[in-house]
Design brief:
The chain has a single domain, classed as TIM Barrel. It is 43% helix and 13% strand. It contains 13 helices and nine strands. The chain has helices at 23-33, 79-91, 105-110, 127-133, 146-171, 197-210, 225-230, 240-247, 251-259, 273-276, 281-295, 301-306, 321-342; strands spanning 11-12, 63-66, 69-72, 119-125, 175-181, 214-219, 235-238, 263-269, 308-312. α2 packs across α5 and α5 (146-171) packs parallel to α6 (197-210). The longest helix is centred in the middle third of the chain and has 26 residues, at 146-171. 49% of the residues are buried.
Length: 343
């Protein structure tokens, strides 16, 4: 069963993608900037198979890649492959759900390193985002098929379990954190692209039941934060630069979440370089302090600092390597300042 992670005390880490194409360089940059809470980046600029959804799709029953899109082959019988996923889930057979180098080059490269950090983090595509981007022969998202949504959550659970075991056994990390990348959770409550809460909860419970380390959620758009908090993730990763106002409407729930050991990863540094270039570390630090002050009416500053991470707002795609370094270093500097302030 998934668990909370040790209090990170406002350390900095990254989120998802980097613009690098050299996995060794990407990991070296991450370890240099975020030595106390490193993460394993994804590198979508290396090719289609390393982009979101595709990078976790290798074991999807009935998978077809056509014209740079993912499809589920609903024209043929996939029952045997789907039953195998169910059997593997029940028996905890996660070995066949590995991330291979052509899908996750930075993950494979990081597994060659002794990291030895208190926590090592990675991301996998969450079932909602996965299921809404893969369509069947009738161009209907497979998430709207109850059986496929169920298979999908179990497949992702097995992949998340494989990831955490690999991170712990191969890198020396004392604790692991697997974060579900879920931008499509912005559809919660939408009448245009509806997502059913109970299907989301059932999928989350499937994954949380198999994972033994920390399990988090990243959603970089506004959503039903009350519902996501109710899932009790180890880490809730948000785009605080643009959605902090809406998120803090749930201040009481956020406070209770922190009190029971939940961590908020405040994405206060814009991940898009054009936006980042309009700010300074000082201006972003002031934004962060404003969030801290607003929530201090519900929690002590000591608890806020203990149960917070500082991150970019999302994966860094729209930047070159130097731009990504500047964004990551800004997050690290804000972390350094807040930790100095609270010490």
């Amino acid at each position: 069963m998934a668990k909370m992670i040790p209090a990170p005390h406002s350390r900095a880490t990254g989120v998802g993608a980097l613009p690098h194409t050299d996995p060794a360089q990407a990991n070296a940059d991450v370890l240099s900037i975020f030595p106390e809470f490193p993460y394993i980046p994804t590198l979508p600029d290396r090719g289609l198979l390393e982009s979101i959804v595709f990078n976790d799709s290798e074991q999807l029953p009935g998978r077809i890649i056509r014209e740079d899109r993912l499809f589920f082959d609903s024209t043929t019988d996939q029952s045997a492959a789907m039953e195998q996923v169910y059997m593997d889930y029940v028996e905890g057979n996660y070995a066949g759900y590995a991330l291979h180098a052509e899908y996750a080059s930075a993950f494979s490269e990081m597994m060659t390193r002794h990291v030895g950090a208190p926590v090592l983090k990675c991301q996998v595509t969450g079932p909602v985002t996965f299921g809404m981007q893969v369509v069947d022969a009738e161009k209907r998202p497979i998430y709207y098929d109850a059986q496929l949504a169920d298979v999908l959550s179990k497949m992702i659970a097995l992949k998340a379990r494989w990831c955490e075991v690999a991170m712990r056994e191969k890198t020396g990390a004392r604790e692991t954190l697997v974060v579900l990348n879920e931008p499509y959770l912005a559809s919660l409550g939408s009448s245009v692209v509806p997502v059913d809460q109970e299907t989301v909860r059932a999928g989350w419970n499937d994954i949380a039941s198999l994972v033994e380390g920390g399990l988090g959620i990243h959603c970089c758009s506004n959503t039903d934060w009350e519902f996501l908090i109710s899932l009790n993730p180890a880490v809730l990763s948000i785009d605080a630069y643009t959605t902090a106002k809406e998120f803090l409407l749930y201040a009481d729930s956020v406070a209770r979440y922190m009190e029971r050991g939940g961590v908020v990863a405040w994405g206060i540094v814009p991940a898009e370089y054009k936006v980042f270039a309009t700010e300074t570390v000082d201006s972003l630090y002031e934004r962060y302090l404003a969030i801290r002050k607003q929530l201090s009416f519900r929690v002590t500053e000591q608890l806020f600092d203990a149960q917070s991470l500082v991150t970019p707002s999302c994966g860094i795609r729209f930047a070159d390597r130097n731009g990504s370094l500047a964004i990551m270093r800004a997050a690290a500097e804000i972390s350094r300042r807040i930790r100095a302030k609270s010490s």
